User: Which sequence fits this backbone?
């Protein structure tokens, strides 16, 4: 059998049904095999699009996303998606073509040291110099990408390797050779007991949940714990949906652009139960002033996250689902009940009542971005898979599109990649063909991967891009307004295409809303269509995202609203 | 504080780059690094000396553990291990100074491995401190060049490093 066919067979055995890719010279033999394969290939219009689509597919489905790019420029175009997946711990296998073995190291045509370039941004990588080991490498790559703390794995395959003839028996499972990789751990029982004791004893506990809860599929257990002790829950951007945000115990997102009540509650908590989070700087701000009165319980699968940014009192290294299950048994024994923390729960509810998020309709009909996001939520009944771009649009979406389920809010958190949302939405739509998939976008970000409109149209993926169009690189402009004397250096981008016409030119649908009263009708029509659509929502140009804690600040520095 | 990390890794291409790259990326400084195959040709040992806070070294260890090709990491306790460094030193030696140099060589149990009309090459092994002390004593004679391997260390007793 040809090695190229073996690659596809091995991918199929890993459960791969879709590859997002873009061809090139060194991939000819692989693409020839794809021609007859029953694996679906989604042809992106740029490798970055293919990579982010694989990422969105992975986040929406929980499966490993697969992308494919040719050597040299194809592979370097994947660098951003690989880094993006790495920062947000997304399971991904990126296959890249490489020049022939005898040409490696000679600065050959379209040669790039891909394993070298991606070294700091992969969970692991392989340069396959022998076709015989391909089945094992592919099995290992999926195992590494998808287990433990997930992440991207690169497989770089020289073109001559893909053309080799080799023996392959699909019934034989190749043995893995990973003596140094032990991904699953069960939390230490003594630590779990200690955590339970702290929870039962605490007066003002808070749950701070992140992407790790979603990866571990531990939402149910998290919810049980929260309800059992009526403990308020705040999540990170990546953790959105780990706990239903329309629940009265939900405090929404915390951190720089978190809700006032989440940040107040964290600043007063005496116990923080951190699950699947990494105490990132966008969450903590000034780390010394972060939850200053609290003890920390930190549950994470990755021991390197424990005490990396804050010193924790009870570290528990383990799978969140297992740890929370054990923890539930222990708190039960200690008699944790819904009124264990009663005065606190009431205080938190008071903050929530007194400092709600605002989305006030303007009197002159101008569209307020928060109002637009809430309208999007309403028309999609809060059930859409929402991807976002980066910037103000992302924060407005995070604050005002309440997520009820895990894997329904997909955003570039760690890397903050403009241009991520649209291709990610394409991938999510492939994973969830029957769902309404949205990209809540900024006009700047959308233009970074706008060419993927062709992909959406070609593969009939009816993604709806909702541009909150302020004709600014809004988030950067906001910082210039607040901290740089309104000197809008290079952030005013009035020169932009007519997004409606662009959409139509690609064969998608284009809509525009310029006044609040038009919004509902436009959204309803666009969402009801079975074709991809771009909705150009002209919002108030200089609207800002609030609340905001400036970088490195604490809850005392919070700006609640427009000064 | 100085720490000596003994790291067992799979003997595969690119593993050194992964380890060294991780140190660079996370801003940890490597003071010395010794790498070679072990008694098992599939496994190499890296002995890495770092001068960092305990907390930082703990982070280094955890991050190293995440590399798929890393098998085992030991932060060696200086009291419970034997440490050695190898020094090659070329020093000026004329008829007058030669005997004095030879005396010092004797005291330090070093070895003269090459002699020519104007210089001699000395080989010595010992702890880092001993090697440094020896180098100090050689300086006045005129050191032409020197090379040190960096620290190797092995834990005492039956327990493997
Ligand atoms: C690839 C990339 N380049 C630059 C940035 C820096 N950046 C962060 S937000 C932002 C503005 C985004 O503008 P837009 O997409 O229009 O969204 P808005 O903030 O207006 O909602 C920029 C330039 C980034 N995050 N990613």
Assistant:
């Amino acid at each position: 059998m040809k090695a190229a066919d073996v690659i596809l067979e091995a991918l199929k055995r890993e459960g791969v049904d879709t590859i997002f890719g873009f061809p090139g010279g060194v991939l000819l033999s692989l693409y020839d095999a794809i021609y007859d394969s029953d694996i679906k290939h989604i042809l992106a219009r740029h490798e970055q699009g293919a990579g982010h689509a694989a990422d969105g597919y992975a986040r929406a489905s929980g499966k490993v996303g697969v992308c494919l790019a040719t050597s040299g420029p194809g592979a370097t175009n994947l660098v951003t998606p690989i880094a993006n997946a790495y920062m947000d711990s997304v399971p991904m296998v990126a296959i890249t073509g490489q020049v022939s073995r005898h040409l490696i190291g000679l600065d050959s045509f379209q040669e790039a040291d891909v394993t070298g370039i991606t070294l700091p941004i992969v969970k692991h990588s392989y340069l396959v110099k022998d076709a015989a080991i391909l089945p094992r490498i592919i099995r290992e790559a999926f195992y590494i990408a998808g287990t433990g703390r997930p992440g991207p794995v690169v497989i770089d395959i020289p073109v001559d390797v893909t053309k080799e003839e080799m023996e392959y028996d699909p019934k034989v499972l190749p043995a893995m050779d990973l003596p140094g990789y032990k991904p699953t751990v069960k939390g230490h029982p003594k630590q779990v007991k200690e955590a339970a004791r702290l929870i039962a004893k605490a007066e003002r506990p808070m749950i701070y949940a992140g992407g790790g809860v979603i990866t571990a599929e531990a939402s149910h257990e998290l919810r049980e714990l929260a309800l059992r002790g009526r403990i308020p829950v705040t999540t990170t951007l990546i953790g959105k949906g780990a706990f239903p945000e329309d629940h009265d115990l939900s405090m929404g997102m915390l951190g720089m652009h978190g809700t006032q009540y989440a940040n107040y509650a964290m600043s007063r908590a005496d116990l923080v139960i951190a699950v699947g989070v990494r105490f990132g700087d966008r969450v903590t701000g000034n780390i010394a002033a972060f939850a200053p009165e609290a003890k920390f319980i930190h549950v994470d699968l990755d021991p390197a996250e424990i005490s990396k940014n804050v010193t924790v009192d009870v570290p528990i290294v383990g799978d969140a689902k297992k740890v929370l299950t054990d923890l539930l048994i222990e708190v039960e024994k200690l008699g944790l009940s819904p009124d264990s923390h009663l005065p606190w729960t009431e205080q938190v509810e008071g903050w929530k009542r007194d400092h709600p998020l605002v989305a006030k309709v303007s009197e002159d009909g101008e569209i307020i971005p928060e109002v637009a996001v809430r309208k999007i939520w309403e028309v999609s009944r809060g059930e859409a898979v929402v991807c976002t771009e980066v910037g103000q649009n992302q924060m407005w979406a995070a604050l005002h599109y309440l997520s009820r389920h895990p894997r329904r809010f997909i955003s570039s958190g760690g890397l903050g990649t403009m241009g991520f949302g649209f291709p990610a939405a394409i991938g999510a739509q492939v994973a969830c063909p029957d769902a309404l998939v949205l990209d809540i976008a900024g006009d700047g970000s959308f233009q970074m991967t706008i060419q993927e409109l062709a992909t959406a149209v070609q593969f009939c993926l009816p993604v709806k891009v909702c541009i909150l169009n302020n004709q600014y690189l809004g988030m950067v402009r906001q910082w210039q307004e607040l901290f740089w004397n309104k000197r809008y250096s290079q952030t005013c981008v009035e020169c932009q295409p007519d997004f409606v016409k662009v959409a139509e030119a690609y064969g998608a649908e284009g809509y525009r809303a310029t006044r609040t009263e038009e919004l509902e009708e436009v959204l309803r029509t666009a969402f009801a269509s079975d074709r991809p659509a771009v909705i150009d929502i002209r919002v108030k140009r200089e609207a800002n995202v609030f609340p905001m804690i400036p970088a490195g600040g604490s809850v005392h520095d919070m700006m609640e609203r427009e000064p | 504080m100085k720490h000596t990390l003994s790291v067992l890794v799979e003997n595969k291409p690119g593993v050194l780059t992964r380890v060294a790259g991780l140190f660079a990326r996370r801003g940890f400084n490597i003071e010395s690094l010794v790498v070679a195959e072990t008694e098992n040709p599939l496994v190499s040992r890296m002995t890495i000396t770092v001068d960092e806070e305990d907390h930082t070294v703990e982070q280094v260890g955890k991050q190293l553990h995440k590399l798929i090709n890393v098998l085992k990491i030991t932060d060696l306790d200086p009291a419970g291990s034997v440490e050695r460094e190898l020094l090659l030193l070329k020093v000026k030696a004329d008829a007058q100074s030669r005997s004095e140099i030879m005396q010092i060589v004797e005291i330090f149990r070093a070895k003269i491995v090459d002699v020519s009309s104007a210089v001699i090459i000395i080989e010595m092994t010992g702890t880092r401190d001993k090697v440094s002390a020896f180098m100090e004593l050689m300086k006045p004679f005129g050191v032409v060049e020197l090379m040190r391997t960096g620290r190797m260390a092995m834990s005492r007793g039956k327990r493997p490093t």
About this structure: The radius of gyration of chain B is 19 Å. Helices of chain B lie at 15-25, 54-66, 95-107, 128-138. The beta strands of chain B are 2-10, 30-37, 43-51, 70-76, 81-92, 111-115, 119-126, 143-148, 152-155.
